[in-house]
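[Automated response] Your request has been received and processed.

Submitted sequence:
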Amino acid sequence: LFIIPHVCVQRRSEGTRHTQLVAMHPDLSPHMHEMCKEAIARLVQCHDESRVNKFTGKCNEARRLLDECLTEEYLVRRAENHREAMARREEVKRKMADFDK
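Generated structure:
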């Protein structure tokens, strides 16, 4: 089952009757991925050189580098979000302590 070509694929988990949609990668607009602009450009260039490249495995190295970059970017963003959430939580605790007085 393809929802949007090259974005989601259907995968059946072994031993279950349920299927899940798995995103192949997020939107690769360069403005959304400042850390990975070069890797995105490399993959797009590889795909543009020949339509067959992405199906024959010639772009696998560019794809692997992009996946690694997107993973690193995700981890950085996740750590930043965690720090911000902890700061907000502390702020709420402080306000609640002031409110209880």
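Summary generated for your ticket: Strands lie at 8-12, 19-23. Residues 35 and 72 are 9 Å apart (CA to CA).
If you did not submit this request, please reply to this message.
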